Amino acid sequence: MVLFLLGLMMALTIPAFTKTLRSLKAKSTVRKIVSALKYARSEAVFKQVPQIVHFDRDNNLFWLGKDRKVSASEDIKVVKLPPEIYIKDLERMDRARDSESNSIWFYSDGSSSSGIITVVDREIEKSYRISVDFFTGLPKVAYEK
């Protein structure tokens, strides 16, 4: 009887536990992107040099750069997103040229080119919107279903 109850409890709790772990992994990935955005902003203000966070949606990665080049190999650190999490969309609020449309710029006064980055987790079917403010350059996360 006791073994039956233990088995029943495990059968009910394990699926919920795995979904929680997946959700934590997705939130951790979103926090990495937000941290990179905040770091780029602070570097731009501190060094008085524009900083750029590039996004490569085809290869599911992002990196911090200092200029217009779009080569991940020559920049600071490339971050590969987990395979179940991907960048669905990057909507720039300014009128960016095509070569700049996959990046968010941060300027020496703390402002940014602004934009909305949509990150999706395939496994738990949840999306996250990271919006970067034009005036303050600060990112804000909204969790969506």
Key attributes of the depicted protein:
145 residues, 32% helix, alpha+beta, minor pseudopilin epsh fold, four-stranded antiparallel sheet
Written description of the protein model:
- This protein is α+β, with helices and mostly antiparallel strands and 145 residues long.
- The chain has one domain: minor pseudopilin epsh fold, CATH 3.55.40.
- It has one helix at residues 2-47, and strands at residues 51-56, 61-65, 78-80, 85-92, 103-106, 115-121, 126-132, 139-144.
- The strands form two sheets. Strands 3-2-1-5 form a four-stranded antiparallel sheet, with helices on one face. The protein has a four-stranded antiparallel sheet with strand order 4-6-7-8, with helices on one face.
- Strand 6 and strand 7 form a beta hairpin.
- The longest helix is centred in the N-terminal third of the chain and has 46 residues, at 2-47.
- The mean pLDDT is 84.
The first-level CATH class is given as Alpha Beta
Parts with pLDDT < 50 across at least 5 consecutive residues:
none
Largest sheet: 4 strands, antiparallel
Give the total of domains: 1
Please state the oligomeric state of the protein chains shown: single chain
Taken as a percent bin, the fraction of beta residues is 25-35%
Examine the secondary-structure arrangement and name the CATH architecture.
3-Layer(bab) Sandwich
Summarize the structure.
This protein is α+β, with helices and mostly antiparallel strands and 145 residues long. It contains 1 helix and 8 strands.
